[in-house]
């Protein structure tokens, strides 16, 4: 974040960094023009509070400054690796998001000139290079120095600079990671996310790729990396800051779990127009879509689990083959792609580097790309041919919850949109399926009303367990994977999800006395054969001493004798079952983590937006 204006920069920056902390929080720092021709820099490893503890009390006189919260890529999270970084003279400071891929060569070049680098980061080279460029021609200004340096950088770099000799100016450059300018009255802001300045202004300008912004209290000048005036997109921030507050819960994640009915409704809203399912952006003709003969879904983590569910819907409704792949593997195995391939990229942040690179690879091979994303204007939707936004609102908890269920619904909408284009579903059938999707909001609300408290009690009871296994079949399999991922990332507990049919091929050896096993049951009516098979699987694990926690449809009496603990969810259609059955597993993971004393919103080693490969 950067600020230039009339307020005490320290106060503005700390306020903004608090709202940005979810993006990374292993260290934090600020650099503030001290009003006496120097820069005051404070940095501290650990959460933002560690930085606040070392800041001078009360506001300093400086009204220009920058701040950063870090998620380590190069160099461990220590004080000396915390941003901002400075050049040797201490007159230039930089904060950086991303990775400067050619930093080793640049570092060697600087060292050969006798420059001493004081951190292990890739970012520090940018401060030295800008200082050198500025000193070569101070009259050309800081912006010119930054422009000369970014031309030499490779990789992903969104950078903010300040120079002690230009105490009324901030210069920022964007490539890859997001950057937004906040326009105030006699003050300007720049940040990775509007949340950083929403307390001060709601007028914003989104920077595009390869753009540089020069901020003074009076305004912003945006140019491209070549120095030409650049086009920008002004917008008004209309979400309430309250929407990102915890709403009375201890953790954002708990609030976000409760917001799922709204997130589902908002994601569905406006997508059925005159009997047709419409996307938010479509730069593909109907004919180009009709030519599609194969679909790849690429995504990471939780979004990948949503993608697994997309396969069931799209293949069933469209009769077209669908492959689902983790984005980080996709481009390295030379997938067969051409104009008639549709790649569906799912990403909450729209900035995940693995998914973004998969999208770029797909486009290079001429494949069509459709993005499902929760972040308006993020890089992945910008580089896609079509976009469907999940309108889940900001998700602060690192663990994806409401964005997962919204992604699942969005996948189904994409399935219906394709089905109507291919002609594999008539309009009345599409409308019926859409109405079915709408019913999910009520069903998920019923789950929240009925199961949260008993599930939390169960979680407290099992919080001391060494490991938990999750089993499912068909659409219950991705739910099992997602339940295990939530428990791993929040409770740091060994957790694995399996297709229940695979149990006998190896994983059953893991079953031992009192091991908790969560089983996601299919409907006894809708999927009777699968239900029978899962009953047998439960018997097998029970016989070997496992504690069985069963998520089953209300009224499923056949499973009751085999469930040590039964979590009942409403009866819904097969494709909606993952929505109702994943909610208790989110609650379970959050409560186990809380019982173990962990920060549910900020699990160790994880960041909300993973902008490196
Ligand atoms: O922003 P994205 O949806 O692209 O993020 C993908 C994953 O990093 C993300 O879903 C991650 O797995 C979550 N922390 C899981 O809760």
TrEMBL record:
A GO term from the CC aspect: cytosol
Superkingdom: Bacteria
Keyword Nucleotide-binding: no
Residues at the active site: 608 (for fru-6p isomerization activity)
Domain SIS: 285-424, 458-603
EC numbers on record: 2.6.1.16
Catalytic activity: D-fructose 6-phosphate + L-glutamine = D-glucosamine 6-phosphate + L-glutamate
BP-aspect Gene Ontology terms: carbohydrate metabolic process; fructose 6-phosphate metabolic process; protein N-linked glycosylation; UDP-N-acetylglucosamine metabolic process
Keyword list, A-Z: Aminotransferase, Cytoplasm, Glutamine amidotransferase, Repeat, Transferase
A molecular-function term among this protein's GO annotations: glutamine-fructose-6-phosphate transaminase (isomerizing) activity
Purpose: Catalyzes the first step in hexosamine metabolism, converting fructose-6P into glucosamine-6P using glutamine as a nitrogen source.
Name of the protein: Glutamine--fructose-6-phosphate aminotransferase [isomerizing]
Organism: Actinomycetospora succinea
Gene behind this protein: glmS
């Amino acid at each position: 974040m950067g600020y230039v204006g009339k307020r005490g920069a320290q106060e503005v920056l700390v306020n903004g960094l608090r709202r940005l902390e979810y993006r990374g929080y292993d260290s934090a720092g600020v650099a503030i023009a001290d009003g006496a021709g120097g820069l005051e820099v404070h940095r501290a490893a650990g959460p933002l509070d560690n930085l606040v503890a070392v800041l001078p009390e009360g506001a300093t006189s400086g009204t220009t400054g920058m701040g950063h919260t870090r998620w380590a890529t190069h160099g461990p999270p220590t004080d000396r690796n915390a941003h901002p970084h400075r050049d040797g003279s201490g007159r230039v400071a930089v904060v950086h998001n991303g990775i400067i891929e050619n930093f080793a060569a640049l570092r060697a070049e600087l060292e050969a000139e006798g420059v001493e680098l004081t951190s292990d980061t890739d970012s520090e080279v940018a401060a030295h290079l800008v200082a050198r460029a500025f000193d070569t021609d101070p009259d050309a200004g800081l912006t010119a120095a930054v422009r000369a340096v970014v031309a030499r950088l490779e990789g992903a770099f969104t950078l903010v600079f300040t120079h002690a000799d230009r105490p009324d100016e901030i210069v920022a450059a964007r490539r890859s990671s997001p950057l937004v300018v906040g326009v105030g009255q006699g003050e300007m802001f720049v940040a990775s996310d509007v949340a950083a300045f929403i307390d001060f202004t709601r007028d914003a300008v989104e920077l595009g790729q390869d753009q540089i912004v020069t901020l003074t209290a009076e305004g912003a000048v945006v140019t491209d990396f070549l120095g030409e005036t650049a086009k920008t997109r002004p917008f008004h921030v209309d979400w309430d800051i309250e929407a990102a507050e915890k709403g009375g819960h201890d953790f954002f994640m708990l609030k976000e779990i409760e917001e799922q009915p709204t997130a589902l409704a908002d994601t569905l809203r406006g997508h059925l127009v005159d009997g047709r399912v419409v996307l938010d952006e479509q730069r593909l003709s109907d004919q180009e879509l009709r030519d599609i003969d194969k679909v790849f879904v690429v995504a990471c983590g939780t979004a990948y689990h949503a993608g697994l569910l997309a396969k069931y819907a799209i293949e069933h409704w469209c009769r077209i083959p669908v492959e689902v792949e983790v984005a980080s593997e996709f481009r390295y195995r030379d997938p067969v792609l051409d104009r008639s391939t549709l790649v569906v990229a799912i990403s909450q942040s729209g900035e995940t580097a693995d998914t973004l690179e998969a999208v770029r690879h797909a486009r290079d091979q001429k494949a069509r790309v459709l993005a499902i994303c929760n972040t308006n204007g993020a890089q992945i939707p910008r580089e896609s041919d079509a976009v469907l936004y999940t309108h889940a609102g900001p998700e602060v908890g690192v663990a994806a919850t409401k964005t997962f269920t919204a992604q699942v619904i969005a996948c189904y909408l994409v399935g219906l949109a394709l089905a109507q284009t291919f002609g594999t579903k008539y309009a009345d059938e599409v409308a019926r399926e859409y109405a079915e999707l709408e019913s999910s909001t009520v069903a998920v609300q019923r789950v929240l009303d009925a199961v949260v408290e008993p599930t939390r009690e169960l979680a407290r009871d099992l919080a001391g367990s060494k490991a938990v296994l999750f089993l499912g079949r068909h659409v219950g399999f991705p739910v099992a994977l997602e339940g295990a991922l939530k428990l791993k990332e929040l409770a740091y507990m060994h957790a694995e999800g399996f297709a229940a049919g695979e149990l006998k091929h190896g994983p059953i050896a893991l079953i031992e006395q009192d091991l908790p096993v969560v089983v996601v049951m299919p409907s006894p009516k809708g999927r009777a054969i699968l239900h029978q098979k899962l009953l047998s699987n439960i018997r097998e694990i029970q016989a070997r001493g496992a504690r069985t926690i069963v998520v089953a449809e209300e009224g499923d009496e056949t499973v009751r004798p085999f469930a040590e603990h039964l979590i009942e969810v409403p009866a819904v259609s097969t494709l909606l079952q993952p929505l109702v059955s994943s909610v208790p597993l989110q609650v379970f993971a959050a409560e186990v983590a809380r019982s173990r004393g962990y920060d549910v919103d900020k699990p160790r080693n994880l960041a909300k937006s993973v902008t490196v490969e």
